[in-house]
Specification:
With 101 residues, the protein is mainly α. It contains 4 helices and 2 strands, in the order αβαααβ. Helix 1 packs across helix 3 (56-72) and helix 2 (39-52) packs antiparallel against helix 4 (83-94). The longest helix has 17 residues, at 56-72.
């Protein structure tokens, strides 16, 4: 029974472990100046916004669905996308950073 609790805690913590890969070598998008000097502040703000607008229970459910239910059904159902990662990527992109992953 304690393994179930450990698994639940690991899945909840895993939702906030996204580290975006950002190209900081030059100008991003249509901006005339380099936005890399603001990258640390932007990452912190975007992660906080994404954390405030996602539900840990649904993110954990998506992880269980993708990694346990889908293989059991031979990957026939579609994969559920994590909202936290998508929100962080969109926020950083809208702030002028080139997010690779």
């Amino acid at each position: 029974m304690k393994y179930v609790y450990l698994l639940a805690v690991l899945l909840l913590v895993n939702g906030c472990a996204y580290k975006p890969v950002i190209d900081t070598a030059g100008r991003s998008g249509t901006f005339n100046e380099n936005k890399a000097k603001e990258i640390t502040n932007d990452i912190q703000h975007c992660k906080l916004l994404a954390k405030d607008h996602t539900n840990n229970f649904t993110e954990a459910y998506k992880a269980v669905y993708n990694y346990y239910f889908r293989p059991a059904t031979l990957w026939l159902p579609d994969k559920m996308e994590f909202r936290y990662k998508a929100l962080v990527k969109k926020c950083l992109t809208n702030r002028g950073h080139s997010v690779l992953d």
